[in-house]
Amino acid sequence: MDHQYFKSYEMCWGTLGTVRPFSNFHPDRDVLELQTALEKKDSMTLVRILANRNNAQRQVIAKTFEEITQKNLVAGLKKALSGDLESLMLGLMMPPVQYEVHRLQQAMAGIGTDEEILLEILCTRSATQLQEIRDTYSNLYRKELVKELRAETSGEFLNLVVALLNKEDVTGSVQRDVESLSASLNVKRVNTRPWIDILTSRDSRHLRKVLMGLELEHGRRMDQILEKKMTGDIQIGLKALVQCIQNPYAYLAQRLATTKTAVLQGIMVSRCEEDLLCIRAAYLKLTGTSLYTALQKQFKGVHLQALLTICRSED
Q: What pTM was computed for the model?
């Protein structure tokens, strides 16, 4: 499988997504139903309409809603909904890049920083996507994302996230990269600089060959090598990056299987028009259970129906 083909940012969204454009789309009709549903706080109707439209159609609905009612649809949703269902539906209403920016901002808001959210987004997005994220972050919050990262992280982990944010695509030699990384391990205190420099500046196909070479040379899996040689946040960061290089869908499936509701919703919303089908397949392979079935065991009510609509079907 050619991972770069399937992850191509230029590819038409929907090919590997679960949420597709609604074929019989009539925004005026949707607006009238939504207006009534908001008045009655009919969350099931809100979910039935909005979760069955793709993001571009939701933006049309929001604009048409304001034109017809002179009211803001998002503000109406905030009044009609609450809890996890509210955050899920508000996430669906954001344009994709804005949603990723929102998740980054929330990860750094308040006391403490959610490093795993930072890693998820920075490790799985392309250089082109990250440039859009940087620009959108600056426009929305009037702050430089790199400065926010510098304020919220430190040390080797800071070096890693800044390098990820500024991903490059530099041609390198697989053998030289293997030798450089291997040499950094053969000292008492591992030099992480080559790891950061190489793993954030080569394409994934090249890096998969480099990682395979390291595994063969050391007779261990990459996660075992990193666990033995490194500690703390930089170990966590490099393990996440290596997982994403080797198999980004397996990494995201693991996140779905082991983390809290906010993370599950974040992944499902951000990937539902891009590659959630691939993540679903990886989830089934990882857990032996389909994501559709797993959701039914963990959630209930209208919130469950919204998640199942995004997930779309059983595997």
A: 0.92
